[in-house]
Amino acid sequence: MLGSLALLGLAGCNGQKGDAAPMEAEPAPITLGPENVIRIEPRTLQSGPVISGSLQARQAATLRAEVAGPVLEVNADQGQPVKRGALLARIDDVAFQDQLIAARSAVRVAENTVRVAEAEEERTAKLTQAGVITQRDFERAQLTRHQAQAQLSEAQSRLALAREQVGRTRIVAPFDGVVSERQVNAGDVVQPGSSLVTVVDPRSLELNAFMPAEYGGRLKAGTPVDFRLQGDAEQTFSGKIERINPAVDPATGQVRIYVTIPNVEQSLLVGLFAQGRVASESREALAVPLAAVDARTTPPSVMRVRDGKLERASVDLGLRDDVAQQIEVRSGLQAGDVVVVGSARELAEGTRVQVTQAPRQPGLGPSSPTPR
Length: 372
What we know:
372 residues, alpha+beta, CATH 2.40.50.100, disordered C terminus
């Protein structure tokens, strides 16, 4: 068997003698889409303590019942915009209206009593001056007038309280905003303190977050803060530190800060979780996405496209921007270089590639804002 295979092999060799060996076909280049390539350009990198927390409305109010009684109407639904002073709910005020009527009557009686007492005091004063009655009679008239005025003041206080009680049956919006919660319906019986409606002003939000205590003395009000919402790796939002708690939280060992965030277009929602960074250091530099860096090599490296092929380039890294997910490249790359990200990083060095579209700039996606 081995002899036969050898003879067949020899015959094959003799048959091809003098013929040129066929050339092996070169593989076609691998196509890379815009999601797999990034063009390196200068950009602003910022570094500082990383923070996280939830977005809260700077102005929010949970309106509660101040009097007991059945709810007659509710004019507020979740998500409904309201103006300051708008009637949101009304509690039955029949009993308070009766008290108001009685208080008004008591004030009128007290006012008449005061007028009579004042007239009597004036008449008594004239008679005393004429010597018809004694000074003691005049003093009694003065005392009667003082007592009548005291009764009038008491009646007026009861009238003011009755009016206030009637006013407490009307639940109105304390400011322009949006109804976020509605806890009652018409027909419910409420007690003082019962939650009725919650109104928030979504035009200005506040990020309550913690940062390491060692940064507490280095930051001040007005320091810029960049953050991203959980689940949104593309869009970056900005705010400024408004207040810094002067005490360290004993449970976490960190300092709480309060970041003011404009939300005029109301693109941000109350309650969303956000992660960001206080910009304590900033500079303009060439940057590469963190996802493009291969930290397994020493020094770190990236795969870039050069003359239609992939080549590995060692890089010297600097300032790291955890919010933008970018890192400074001090050396190893030049502006305009194209590096690969994502699954394309696993391609072997020397692989022929073809970029279908213009590469993205660092950190930009289809819906991302232009870098600052």
